[in-house]
């Protein structure tokens, strides 16, 4: 990697740090852990900069690094720390506000009613945080087409929520975010 390419890579990576932190927080649910995870993902991206192809989607690449690190940490963590029963009893708190999980699951189910091309555009722009230009390149259509699909998808979701006419699939509401992230990962790949 030449000096100019490395500077460009460094600038682009630094610009992605707020997005990585936000994505890490959505995975961890803990600000301190998320910051550590984002920092580790940036360090891994920097160490692997030679394997990145300039001109491809750095945001998707770094998100994949962060996600993989998160799951690697999760797999290791259950083996490395013994449960301290006394500490657990003092710190475990039941979440009695399920409204946000239910609302997110309602969104997931309503989005299943959208045509595939509208759902795809909405996931990339809304959940993925990609720009219209990036989404257009990923999908292989014009920017105006992506904007139109997102606009139609949003209007359709408003109508679906107003009428309540969308099927409920009975899946646990807590899995809605994981389902959306899997869709995002598939689309960004």
UniProtKB/TrEMBL annotation:
Residues 17-79 form the RNA polymerase sigma-70 region domain. GO terms for biological process: DNA-templated transcription initiation. Transmembrane segments: none annotated. GO terms for molecular function: DNA binding; sigma factor activity. The keyword Transcription regulation applies. Residues 105-157 form the RNA polymerase sigma factor 70 region 4 type domain. The keyword Transcription applies. InterPro entries: RNA_pol_sigma-70-like, RNA_pol_sigma-70_dom, RNA_pol_sigma70_r2, RNA_pol_sigma70_r4_t2, RNA_pol_sigma_r2, RNA_pol_sigma_r3/r4-like, WH-like_DNA-bd_sf. Keywords: Sigma factor, Transcription, Transcription regulation. PANTHER family: RNA POLYMERASE ECF-TYPE SIGMA FACTO, RNA POLYMERASE SIGMA FACTOR RFAY-RELATED. Belongs to the sigma-70 factor family. ECF subfamily. This is RNA polymerase ECF-type sigma factor sigU. It comes from Caulobacter vibrioides (strain NA1000 / CB15N). The gene is sigU.
